[in-house]
Design brief:
By secondary structure, this protein is mainly alpha-helical. The protein has 9 helices and no strands. The longest helix is centred in the middle third of the chain and has 32 residues. The protein starts with 11 loop residues before the first helix and ends in a 12-residue tail after the last helix.
């Protein structure tokens, strides 16, 4: 289904309505979860009738496919903004460590609505084949184009396996920490873990051949 097949759906008004639906979908996935964000709930949040919702997204599959692309675009834009801001700060010579700056930037991004919504989709995809299939391309694109290249440039690390491992270590520990459920002393435990992640990534990014964390 596209604007060529259905020209009326490419009008400015129609495009604005689709944007409203997709914005509501992304927000509800983040706030109430994939399962609770039914099409009817999304329609109500977008202030649309069920008929108007079906005009733009006739099936759940169409809505999910559109939402995944919408969320991925929103994540890419936020990542680009964070990369520019961090690069500007580093260029200003404020005495910041590039890897620590990258970790702080990604940690902040993980709490933005598009990132929370995507994490929710990844969790739900484990038991939803349709969602898993529609999410696969977006996961691969983000892994290579965003985290792989942009996060690497942000951290000013090289391309060999050790530097790749430092990026993966930072990324997956941060993502796990963002999704983890600490039940006590949350702030102190979080801060200690973030400090250790920064030290570990900094050690792996050190130039030279002797590294306590890296065995050749």
């Amino acid at each position: 289904m596209d604007a060529t097949t259905y020209p009326a759906k490419a009008t400015p008004k129609s495009l604005r309505t689709r944007q409203r639906i997709l914005d509501a979908t992304m927000r509800l996935f983040a706030e109430v979860g994939y399962g609770a964000a039914s099409n009817s709930v999304i329609a109500a949040a977008a202030k649309l009738t069920r008929g108007a919702m079906l005009y733009h997204f006739a099936t759940r599959e169409e809505l999910v496919e559109g939402a995944v692309a919408h969320i991925e675009l929103a994540r890419a834009k936020l990542f680009e903004q964070a990369a520019r801001a961090s690069s500007a700060q580093l260029a200003a010579g404020a005495g910041l460590d590039a890897s620590e700056q990258a970790i702080d930037a990604y940690w902040a991004l993980l709490h933005e609505i598009p990132f929370v919504a995507f994490a929710e989709l990844e969790a739900a995809a484990r038991t939803d084949p349709m969602l898993k299939a529609r999410l696969a391309a977006a996961q691969a694109a983000f892994d290579h184009a965003q985290v792989g290249e942009r996060f690497g440039a942000l951290a000013q690390a090289g391309a060999d396996p050790r530097f790749q491992t430092s990026r993966d270590l930072g990324r997956f520990l941060l993502e796990g920490l963002a999704r983890g459920a600490m039940t006590y002393d949350q702030a102190a435990r979080r801060d200690r873990l973030l400090a250790v992640v920064k030290r570990a990534v900094r050690m792996l990014n050190r130039k030279g051949g002797i590294h306590d964390l890296w065995g050749e």
